[in-house]
Amino acid sequence: MERIKKELSNAPLVAEFIKEEKLVCSPTDTLYGLIGSSLSKAVFTEIYRLKRRNPEKPLIVIFNSLDRAEELGVLFPEGTKEKLNRIFPERLTVVLPLKENSPLKEITGRGNIAIRVPKDEFLLKVIELSHPLFAPSANPEGGKPAENCSDCYNYFKNRVSLCVEGKTYGRPSTLVSLLRGKPELLRKGAFPFEKLLEVFSEKD
To answer: Can you tell me the distance from the alpha carbon of 72 to that of 62, in angstroms, rounded to the nearest whole number?
Structure first.
């Protein structure tokens, strides 16, 4: 497992790994993540295999903008995109529906997707240079999330090609469903749910 530092100058190298459909362990804006191209069915399958993840549990996809999410078939209920743009990038993940012809629906087999624009300049650059990313926590199902590259190596050995060494925020994102239009809290996390409710209660 090759190791590099989390520096903006290394973002192009990570982006090349992503475009080659390889998995990378990297700090995200929340925890260490097992990141890979969300446009690859092979990457999707390999993440579930490596994590021994319950196939019923969906994967989060991180984007560098909501416009890019929309291009890939994420549906935003009326007014939702504008409100979320007041918040993102942030440690907030929202569940939204997918269009029938979305490539994300074809890859994941699901009619909805959990998305985030991460509060992390390094990841935003990697995504800009490659693809939106699957980014589940870097650990086998039920295991303690990795905190560094040594943990990643202990979990995945050389089945993951590259690890980015750096600090994480140390808390998961707040997870919210917007499938019914209004925010429904699914998991408490780093972003205050009350702030989201405030934004969604504002009149445009």
So the answer is: 12
